[in-house]
Structure to design on (522 residues):
């Protein structure tokens, strides 16, 4: 295309092809024969000299088809968030190849590029999904995948938990944040996510799910799969917004776990109900929700209720234990919101536009990249605690320098912090501020005692914050999945251009994609 010559297929069949220049008197031509028992072709003759007139060249060429345009620009769409408009494609083709293209050709070329990089059309993507999931389990043994279809053999639910995430959760605090967000592809649907915090306060993805909508059945199905994979114990805390379907699903799937509410979602509900934009309302509410001890909570809660009549009854009806740190029967540590879930969803905002199989692959790539980067960072850490916790302890040590410590006996101490004093019991690992008990991390007052005694501050930290647990969290590796052309299915290598004819293992021939009631034959 760059040299502005055009060609046409003179003769062709399944075994050979002859291509000539479109000018009748030009000597340029190529002949190629197909190799026996191979998909490769060998060029047997090539006259690489054009003898056509110079004025025969044109900027509009028949070879610039939508398929060719798609092949030329597909690398521009490797990043799902890349915006490349048809006008941008026209300008790019003009600069790179000197080709003037119509808008319709460019549009179709862009769609070809999308299909090439996104594993086909949305319909083909649903058909490819079982094969992709099979390869995921082959390359990542121990991963849990559930693909559920209706009686009519239509897509209904999908659940994925990587083996590396399953292994790593044992070294994370038992607080799971769950959330849902809408997919933006052709068939829509809802993405369900379950994440937690690692030792370095970063997002640790546990599982994802896809369903038709955010309803009771979908949430219950997803959370039951989460329970089957990650288990349940009395110390487990589930944090979510106040969606009714989530509450009923948690009660059914995790009857022994404590279900806490995201304090920011409840704040928005509070503002909406009382039609208040008072900044003091927000300040007092957040402070009351995050308070560690009951005395501090009651003071802040009284101030809040005095400023907003009716707020007391409303917040108590929700359940003080569900939104306050001081009343919670289980440790929530510092996870009082669903921010980590929403942050994970925000990272996937552009990916959610992709067809289902391409979307799952992008999630895998993201997790694979995160695990590798954080594994490297954890292994390179030289302190006993994770980097974030080490910085937090250093800040608390500086604050503890200004406090006075009065010894009562070998284990109990009185710590004077400004105009207040706190009692620290090193035998019971308690402080009257309750930060030490609830966060399992030495507070300022405990560190003030450490400064005056021989206690090792690192021995007072939960194992969940240690470098050892941080490294173990990311010890598992999320392995890559080979290109579709090399997929091996049920012991038989898939032939090229046969990807629509898989014989799937226990998901046979998914022929329809159904989301939000839309049915499309594949």
């Amino acid at each position: 295309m760059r040299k502005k010559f055009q060609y046409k297929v003179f003769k062709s069949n399944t075994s050979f092809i002859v291509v000539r220049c479109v000018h009748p008197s030009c000597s340029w031509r190529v002949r190629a024969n197909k190799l026996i028992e191979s998909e490769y072709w060998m060029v047997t003759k090539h006259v690489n000299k054009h003898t056509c007139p110079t004025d025969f060249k044109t900027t509009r060429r028949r070879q610039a088809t939508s398929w060719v345009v798609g092949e030329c620009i597909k690398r521009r769409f490797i990043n799902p968030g890349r915006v490349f408009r048809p006008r941008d494609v026209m300008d790019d083709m003009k600069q790179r190849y000197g080709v003037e293209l119509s808008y319709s050709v460019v549009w179709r070329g862009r769609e070809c590029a999308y299909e090439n990089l996104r594993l086909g059309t949305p319909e083909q993507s649903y058909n490819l999904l079982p094969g992709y999931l099979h390869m995921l389990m082959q390359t990542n043994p121990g991963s849990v995948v559930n693909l559920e279809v209706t009686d009519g053999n239509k897509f209904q639910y999908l659940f994925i938990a990587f083996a590396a995430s399953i292994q790593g959760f044992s070294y994370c605090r038992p607080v799971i944040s769950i959330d849902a967000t809408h997919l933006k592809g052709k068939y829509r649907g809802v993405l369900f996510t379950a994440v937690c915090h690692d030792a370095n306060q970063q997002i640790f993805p546990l599982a994802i799910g896809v369903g038709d909508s955010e309803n009771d059945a979908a949430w219950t199905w997803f959370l039951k799969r989460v329970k089957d994979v990650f288990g349940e114990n009395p110390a487990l805390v589930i944090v979510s917004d106040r969606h009714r379907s989530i509450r009923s699903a948690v009660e059914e799937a995790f009857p022994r776990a404590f279900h806490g509410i995201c304090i920011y979602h409840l704040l928005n509900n509070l503002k909406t109900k009382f039609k208040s934009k008072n900044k003091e309302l927000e300040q007092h509410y957040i402070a009351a929700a995050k308070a560690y001890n009951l005395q501090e909570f009651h003071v802040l809660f009284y101030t809040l209720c005095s400023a907003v009549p009716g707020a007391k009854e409303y917040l108590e009806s929700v359940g003080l234990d569900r939104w306050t740190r001081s009343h919670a029967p289980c440790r929530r540590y510092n996870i009082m919101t669903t921010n980590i879930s929403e942050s994970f969803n925000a990272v996937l905002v552009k990916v959610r536009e992709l067809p289902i199989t391409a979307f799952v692959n992008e999630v895998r790539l993201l997790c694979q990249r995160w695990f590798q980067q954080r594994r490297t960072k954890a292994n390179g850490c030289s302190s006993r605690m994770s980097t974030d916790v080490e910085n937090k302890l250093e800040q608390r040590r500086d604050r503890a320098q200004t406090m006075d410590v009065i010894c009562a006996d070998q284990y109990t101490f009185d710590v004077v912090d400004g105009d207040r004093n706190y009692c620290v019991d090193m035998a019971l690992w308690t402080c009257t501020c309750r930060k030490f008990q609830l966060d399992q991390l030495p507070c300022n007052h405990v560190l003030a005692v450490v400064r005056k005694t021989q206690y090792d501050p690192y021995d007072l930290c939960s194992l969940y914050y240690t470098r050892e647990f941080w490294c173990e969290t990311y010890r598992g590796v999320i392995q890559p999945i080979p290109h579709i052309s090399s997929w091996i299915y049920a012991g038989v290598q898939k032939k090229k251009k046969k990807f629509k004819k898989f014989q799937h293992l226990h998901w046979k021939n998914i022929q329809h994609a159904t989301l939000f009631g839309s049915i499309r034959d594949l």
User: Anything to note?
Assistant: Residues 356-379 form the longest helix (24 residues).
